[in-house]
Amino acid sequence: MAEPTREPTNGPLTFEELQLATRNRGMPLEALSYDLTPTGLHYLLIHWDIPVVDASAWRLRLGGLVKHPMELTLDQVRARPFQTIRVTMECAGNGRARMTPRALSQPWLFEAVSTAEWTGTPLGPLLAEAGLAPEALEVVFTGADCGIQGEVEQDYQRSLAIADATRPEVLLAYEMNGRPLEPQHGFPLRLLVPGWYGMTSVKWLTQIEAVGEPFSGYQQTPAYHYEVEPGQLDDPVTRIRVHALMVPPGIPDFFTRHRQLDAGRVTLRGRAWSGQGAVERVEVGVDGSWADAELDAPGGEFAWRGWSYEWDAQPGEHELTCRATDAADNTQPTDQPWNRQGVGNNLVQRVAVSVRPV
After folding, report:
1. For residues 26 and 109, what is the distance between their CA atoms, to the nearest angstrom?
2. CATH T-level topology, domain 243-356
3. Is the pLDDT of residue 3 over 70?
4. Residue 336: how many other CB atoms lie within 10 Å
5. Contact, 315 vs 285, CB < 8 A?
6. For the whole model, what pTM was predicted?
7. Is 268 helix (H, G, I), strand (E, B) or coil?
8. Are 175 and 119 in contact (CB under 8 A)?
9. In sequence order, what are the residues at sequence separation of 6 or more whose Cβ sits closer than 8 angstroms to the Cβ of residue 80?
């Protein structure tokens, strides 16, 4: 099977990267100001094409190593017990374009993260009703989107171990921010796995299958691994690494996005999140000197947490940074955590600002 990425490069953006960038979109960093990202500002990553799905004809098939295979309509899914969870979702490739050299794929900078409220039915009880066989090891999820990657024609598929698939927060989601899913976000039904990078939350879900051996489809292996040496697949990409971002202060230059603001008291604000434990600390760096920020109340077990910092901005050129630490004592790195696939980059954000005298 071909490698999941082309050879990393230090060269300029390619036509293919620009083509991907126009199909996908990041969340503007000023939208960090919202506790809940408006649906139209939520980041998007679409591997192939957005399927056109007729909800009246759509069915979810649940089979494999189960005692009672099922076929459910959307109305039947929606009639089941439901819950709403606020979840911060981040693309595994967020920050890829900041790596040197960078993997040739979607060229994300910082913006592939958002927070939404998702409504759906928990997956665990549905699997229990189907009756998982004792030999079932994983659950494979298949989406309606199809394409070619690594010279392999495939439906988009990912798997979870039984223990992960049956966690109470894992949902079959049909609403986002109180409305039915929009086509680009997985209509009519998607998997939602809080705390994990976004590639796990399979969109346009059509099939759930219990299997008795580790799933080795392309999007599971070789894709989404922390690969440093060619062909040497290290740890798989799973839970979101600890991360903080700030709303860039002041006003931007149109082309360079360089920030300008007036001298004086400035409140810096942002968000921090982690899939490996609650955020317990955020630090703000001004020209390399770090100080603790004030944390807002938690926004939910799987949602980002707001923070703020009062900065006495002096005239001149400055570099602002921020970094978070979670309950598992993970802290964002100040040196690049490089890998060939360009995934899991939680390198600290750096914002250059020009402070004007008043």
Report:
1. 9
2. Immunoglobulin-like (2.60.40)
3. no
4. 12
5. no
6. 0.94
7. strand
8. yes
9. 121, 125, 126
Distance CA 276, CA 237 (A): 12
Span 223-237, average pLDDT: 86
pLDDT of residue 4: 52
Is the model's pLDDT at 154 over the cut of 60?
yes
Specify whether the CB–CB gap between 266 and 311 falls below 8 A. Answer: yes
Domain span(s) for CATH 2.60.40.650 in the chain: 243-356
- Dig out the tokens for 144 from the structure: 């309606």
CATH 3.90.420.10 in the chain: give the residue spans: 15-236
Q: What are phi and psi of 159, to 5 degrees?
A: -130, 160
Assess if CATH 1.10.10.10 describes domain 15-236: no
Give me the pLDDT at residue 291, please: 98
The pLDDT value recorded for residue 231 is: 72
d(CA 358, CA 349): 27
Helices (H), 39-96: 74-78
Count other Cβ atoms within 10 Å, centred on residue 17: 19
